[in-house]
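Here is one chain, start to finish.
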Amino acid sequence: MGPAIVIGVIVLLIIVTVIGMYNSLVRLRNQVDNAWSQIDVQLKRRHDLIPNLVETAKGYMQHERDTFESITRARSQAMGAGSVSESSKAEGALSGALSNFMLVVENYPDLKANQNFLSLQETLTSTENKIAFARQGYNDQVLFFNNKTQMFPSNIIANSFNFKKRDFFEIENQAEREVPKVSF
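Its structure:
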């Protein structure tokens, strides 16, 4: 009876270890999903602000049709993105369009002084900061999850139960990656 008990204890330990790894992977996957939902909330807020910003500016910037169209097109693509990598690319394009828009705004001092526009611009800036913070949290969760799914022995459980590597939410807009040059 002695060897049967030892074998039973070993089997029980293996089962408990597998269950623990599986539950850990599920928890991490749910944390990644939750972190993505936090980004998604901020992106929706950003998408909702853009039409108000554009409408406010249209009265002042009547000759900037291309600028408005590029923002509208980029916003539509961002709202229609399905995966994290598609969202990364689309949001990068939207950030680029917004940057160009803000550069054009500099040519319209009356618009820059408009209280409604200033309030929308401040809200957009705050939202951009929240997106950056949420993106950092999401990428941290993806790192934990990806590590767990790729490291031994939990990778065996991950592969057995079809836990797939997740994509990071990275900046696709090359202009955002470059450090601005300052010259005096």
